[in-house]
Write a structure and sequence with these properties.
- The chain is an alpha+beta fold.
- The chain is built from 5 helices and 11 strands, in the order E-E-E-H-E-E-E-E-H-E-E-E-E-H-H-H.
- Strands 1, 2, 3, 4, 5, 8, 9, 10 and 11 form a 9-stranded mixed beta sheet that branches. It has a two-stranded antiparallel ribbon with strand order 6-7.
- Helix 1 crosses helix 3.
- It is elongated.
């Protein structure tokens, strides 16, 4: 996922890093998948931009991965059709962060009918970033999907998991219990009733 530019403890990634409900969400995907537009929509909804296009990531001694934008492009975004915009100037200081711990990776992928996507959310996927395993969500992108809302829900769901609640697993467990056949009661013969 990351090529190292400055040794094993630091790398540069292509993507967008946003702070959504206090969760550092790394948006990745191919060029044109809508990462920057999704991040801009998140900023408009009150979340904070950390870095667009290039993210400098480093791992500290505790195994925490931190991301930030390079100084020369910090607070700026490239939006096709608009050009380069300055998020701090447009939305104020509350719309940006200088650095943020990366806790969730969201891979935006062009939707294809033959691809298999997780429909239940029971099997947690991870990806490696500087030797640290991070939760990974693969979200298919297609016309009409509101990616910002999906990322917000992904961040909220991640918060629930951090608090010990795994909604998809809890649902699957409840469903399994309901589908179990009822316990067999011992049969009573006529001899036992006399």
């Amino acid at each position: 996922m990351a090529g190292t530019d400055a040794g094993p403890e630091q790398a540069r990634l292509h993507g967008v890093l946003v702070d959504v409900y206090g969760i550092g969400v790394l948006l990745q995907g191919p060029s044109g998948s809508g990462k920057s537009e999704c991040a801009l929509d998140l900023v408009v909804r009150g979340h904070r931009l950390v870095a667009d296009d290039v993210i400098v990531v480093s791992r500290d001694s505790l195994g925490i991965v931190i991301g930030q934008g390079p100084e020369e492009i910090r607070h700026h975004m490239e939006i096709r059709g608009l050009g380069i915009i300055n998020i701090r100037d447009l939305f104020g200081i509350a719309a940006i962060r200088y650095r943020k711990r990366i806790e969730l990776v969201v891979m935006l992928e062009p939707w294809t009918p033959e691809a298999e996507y997780d429909r239940l959310g029971v099997d947690d996927q991870t990806t490696d970033l500087l030797g640290v395993r991070l939760p990974l969500l693969r979200i298919p992108v297609s016309a009409g999907r509101n990616m910002a809302i999906l990322v917000e829900v992904a961040a909220r769901n991640h918060l629930l998991k951090l608090m010990g609640h795994h909604p998809a697993q809890e649902f699957a467990d409840r469903l399994d219990r309901r589908l179990q056949p009822p316990p067999q009661l011992p049969t009573v013969s006529e001899e036992d009733t006399e």
